[in-house]
Design brief:
mainly alpha; 3 domains; single chain; 304 residues; 15 helices
């Protein structure tokens, strides 16, 4: 699951036991929305009610900033894929959940604890039936490489008793932030400064960092997420401060440019009128014609 999809899991503050119900609401609202963002938002809010009202607003706020309905489509597809893989043999998997799922209430959410509970489940399932072991392996093994927050939500959604909540990655150390700049800075030289390009390079950085470690992803998210709402010129300056190789000129301030141009035109106008006999009796229309000619000449010279 890519970084932006993982965030849809981490930002929603719900009890792990409600994860399956929550994702069913999301899938149901998406299925009835006909790929329309407004329709999806309306249906999710209506379905969420008071039980999931806060979760729905957090979820929609994040999705609105990250491709809207395209994000929801990717999330639903990913959840379906996980569910399908985990329930390839429904009867055997149900037996795994019923017999061993409650024992996972003792998992503390750590990597070491994951290995302990996973291997215990394999051993206990195999003692019952090799086919039950195969069902457990098919469901749990693909999660080994997934971030812990995703494993927590997925297992809760599959019926395991999970008492820890998925959380966003811990606040990174300075060294992790430096590592983001060192490993990915050169790639940003290809950014053209556009809003579309910003989203593409930002999300690529999230995904690439997450493949290194959740901590590095957290460092990238902490540095880049606050820049989403900035004006292009300020964003470019901030990225350069962070050490990313941004090869885009900082956009000029249109107001400042306009004021400077007006000043140049007025100075040239004053000089030109000195050379025009009887300039003091020129009509307003004649003065306007001279000013327009001067502006056109200055624009032509600037374009050379």
């Amino acid at each position: 699951m890519e970084a932006r999809l993982l965030n849809t899991v981490a930002i929603v503050d719900i009890d792990p036991s409600q994860a399956e119900e929550w994702f069913e609401l999301v899938k149901g609202a998406y299925g009835a929305s006909n790929d329309d963002w407004d329709a999806f938002s309306e249906r999710l809010r209506a379905a969420a009610g008071s039980a999931f009202g806060t979760a729905a607003e957090e979820f929609l706020r994040y999705a609105a900033d990250h491709d809207k309905i395209e994000l929801i489509s990717s999330l639903v597809a990913d959840v379906r894929e996980l569910s399908s893989a985990a329930t390839g043999d429904g009867v055997l998997w149900d037996a795994v959940v019923q017999q061993f799922g409650k024992e996972w209430a003792g998992w503390d959410g750590s990597e070491a604890g994951w290995a302990e509970f996973r291997d215990w489940t394999y051993t206990a399932a195999n003692a019952q039936d090799p086919e039950m072991y195969a069902a457990a392996y098919d469901a749990l093994h693909p999660l080994d490489e997934r971030p812990l927050a995703e494993r927590i939500s997925t297992l809760a959604g599959l019926g395991f008793t999970i008492n820890v909540k998925p959380t966003a990655p811990a606040r990174p150390s300075g060294s992790q932030g430096d590592a983001v700049a060192q490993q990915f800075c050169k790639e940003w030289a290809g950014w053209d400064g556009s809003e579309t390009g910003w989203a593409e390079f930002r999300d690529w950085t999230y995904t690439a960092a997450n493949t290194q470690s959740p901590e590095m992803y957290a460092a990238a998210y902490e540095k880049l997420n606050p820049l989403n709402g900035l004006a292009p010129a300020e964003r470019i300056a901030k990225l350069a401060e962070l050490g990313l190789a941004v090869d885009v000129p900082v956009p000029a301030d249109p107001a400042a440019e306009s004021a400077a141009l007006a000043e140049v035109i007025e100075e040239a106008m004053a000089e030109a009128l000195k050379e025009v006999p009887g300039s003091e009796v020129l009509t307003a229309e004649e003065v306007a014609e001279i000013r327009a000619a001067i502006a056109e000449e200055i624009a032509y010279e600037a374009a050379l």
